[in-house]
Specification:
The chain has 441 residues and is of the alpha+beta class. The protein has a domain of 231 residues: ATPase, nucleotide binding domain (Nucleotidyltransferase, domain 5). It contains 12 helices and 18 strands. Strands 1, 2, 3, 4, 10 and 11 form a 6-stranded mixed β-sheet that branches. A 5-stranded mixed β-sheet has the order 14-13-12-17-18. The relative contact order is 0.14.
Amino acid sequence: MTPTRTASRPPGPQGFAAIDFGTSNSAVAVPRPDGGMRLVELEPGFQTMPTAVFYRADTPPQQLEAERLYGRAAVAAYVDGIDGRLMRSMKSILGASLLEQSTDVGGGRAVRYRDVVSGYLRRLKQCAEAEAGTPITRVVLGRPVFFVDDDAERDARAQAALEGAANAVGFAEVSFQYEPIAAALDHESRIDREQLVLVADIGGGTSDFSLVRVGPARRGRAERRDDILANHGVHRAGTDFDRHVELASILPLLGYRSLRPTRPGEVAREVPHAAYFDLATWHLINTVYAPARLAELRGMKAWYAEPKHHSRLMSTVRQRLGHALAAAAEQAKIDVAQQGQAQIDLSALERGLSATLHEADAAAAIETDLARIVQAARETARQAGVAPAAVAVVYFTGGSTGLTPLVDRIAACFPAAQRVRGDRYASVAQGLGLHARALFD
């Protein structure tokens, strides 16, 4: 699928922007007076915003549409247990028949998935116009190499759906650029010779690799599809690391993998794992708070040989501390990467309670996922027919590239390559901004 532009342009001077509509997070760039591009503050103090919308079920009936919260406010409403519907990863439904269907958002209201996407884009457009101080009708949108793997027709539908959503909120002229090309544009602007660059985009849900050709002779070209030699990825990334760290370091204190009381002639068995797996999986945490689950867990008290394990589990569920524990696991992952060890404060659960996570234990917990991600990097070069030694640069972007052991393992596969770190959260938006400036200015 080739990046395209809509044909018509309204008369008169029009502002432009670049939008990275990401699966997990989004960012926007608008022109600076000096000829560069700047990132927009999408939320107070933040230039990136979770790609999330929360529809409040308690919206007064006289309002035609449900009240919507965006980004961190949307996630906070969900975590706090406000009655409503959280929508995330909207990008993943582009190209699917689900896009035209409606979904219940509570309070007797329903919305089309297509309208969820356009509503979020409208919010980004409003933020861009507030920052730029002018109406914006032209936009460059990032797109993955494949919205849908191995299905050209659905992939084309996905781009058309995103373009249609952009048109619906007032973007009259829409252009697309591939996300790995956008990520590499900043590096390309600083080199004086052609290079092969492996773009490693390691986010929350997926690890994506693209081998791209960059250089001064290619700079400024609108069509860059032929510069993407290969693209490959796996559905393993930051949230998987967090889940494994929580299961390894925090949830054993709540009874994960603990044994039931033994009886004569019986082999000791572990307590059921289902609640622990759900507590370690972000989008399933709230399901553990349901009255039926709470009653089920309460009735399992006799299954625990160590009473304090069951007591901590029940305190976690009653006090709705699941997301706090998940956040503690994520921070522990970061601390281990930076300091080699993490002390996890669990005093919100029980006074004086803490856990220690050592680097070796963290590495063991995520080793299977690390190995799959590293293999995906090697496979990308193999699919491109490029020897690892021919890769000149490994360009790291995405929130999970803050994990040093992961970066080291990927880089070791390409011994001659220079390591370049982009902005972990906004390098794609910055590159799309460079492309927008060249295209529209």
